[in-house]
Amino acid sequence: MGFWSNKRVVVTGGGGFLGRQVVERLRGQGCAEIVAPRSAECDLREEAAAGKLLREARANVVIHLAAVVGGIGANMKHPGRFFYENALMGLHLVEAARRHGVEKFVGVGTVCAYPKFTPLPFREGDLWNGYPDESNAAYGLAKKMVLVQLQAYRQEYGMKGIYLLPANLYGPHDNFDLESSHVIPALIRKFIDAQARGERSIRAWGTGVVTREFLYVQDAADGIVLAAERYGSREPVNLGSGEEISIRALAEMIRDLCFYDGEIEWDATLPDGQPLRRLDTTRAEREFGFRALTSLRQGLTETIRWYRHNQGAAQRTQSQHA
After folding, report:
1. Cβ neighbours of 258 (radius 10 Å)
2. 10 Å Cβ neighbour count for 65?
3. How many angstroms separate the CA atoms of 174 and 17, rounded?
4. Residue 1, C-beta contacts closer than 8 angstroms, at least 6 positions apart
5. Average pLDDT, stretch 87-114?
6. What is the pLDDT of residues 191-249, one digit of tens each?
7. Which of 156, 186, 163, 49 is nearest to 107 (CA)?
8. What angle do the packed helices 183-197 and 296-309 form, to 10 degrees?
9. For the chain, what are the domain ranges?
10. Using omega within 30 degrees of 0 as the cis cutoff, is the peptide bond preceding 121 cis?
11. Which of 114, 111, 295 is nearest to 216 (CA)?
12. Prediction pTM value
């Protein structure tokens, strides 16, 4: 019998971009029972709802993916909402897990939790050495509070919780809404829309000189399920690809893969966000054998293909992140 064959698992955000991939991986591992409530069914901002969910699910494992998320523009427009709602969800769910005897809690945070000027590559020990980039600090700090809570509950109650820090995610089923999307889906949509309309240029945010590391969503799901099964330490763990690229080079790669021959106009009046990002991923490989398998070019090709084939559906459901 495999590890998951007798496990009941709650995956919050299980219908969302990352969650659907995690649920698929768990099913493939023969998980006994998976509960993946949508936000309309279970509002984790309400303490009673979190308690009811875990009481009725009788979960052995909780994988907490639900979040109020968005790109730089959305973070700057809604810092209060992003802080309050993400903090509430984490607080309520971890406490409910303690009260209902959950065996293991998997908290999934964000690379935005790292300080703005973290030396490369980002090592987990640097997590508290400064304040996050102002463009998404509220979101990053709210998600980092789950780490604090899990470590405190481990110390006081012996509750087993782990915390993962994935790089920027992308892939099929991402959010392509230009008002709230992250950089990769935004650029894909801009190039494809401009191509369809015969426009000779698109506008991109910032200067393009900052760098990022991206993790294909299916690789991220593999890492989360592996960590849930094999990792047990209180120390946070990075999940990444090890590939760093400037936003300018990323945009040019996406333009080529979309077969768009127009220009990219960089709007330096709009923010770049954190200057540099690349994660040290040695802990994940050492502790539970995780290594990302999808190259950036391969992942972008798959994402562009998915968006071209599902463009209408993606735009109709662009704001539904559960």
Report:
1. 20
2. 25
3. 6
4. none
5. 98
6. 999 999 999 999 999 999 999 999 999 999 999 999 999 999 999 999 999 999 999 99
7. 163
8. 50
9. 8-316
10. yes
11. 295
12. 0.95
Instruction: Give the residue numbers annotated as catalytic, written as ranges.
Output: 139
CATH 3.40.50.720 for domain 8-316:
yes
Q: Which residues of 188-227 are buried (b: 16+ CB within 10 A; e: fewer)?
A: bbbbbbbbeeeeeebebbbebebbbbbbbbbbbbbbbbbb
Strand pairing report for 211-216 and 244-246: antiparallel
pLDDT by residue (tens digit) across 170-192?
A: 999 999 999 999 999 999 999 99
Q: How far apart are CA 198 and CA 196, in angstroms?
A: 6
Residue percentage of the chain with pLDDT more than 90? 92
Of residues 252, 261, 271, the one with CA closest to residue 201: 261
Please state, as a whole number, how many other Cβ atoms lie within 10 Å of the Cβ of residue 232: 12
- 306, exposed or middle or buried, with CB in 10 Å at 0-12, 13-18, 19+? middle
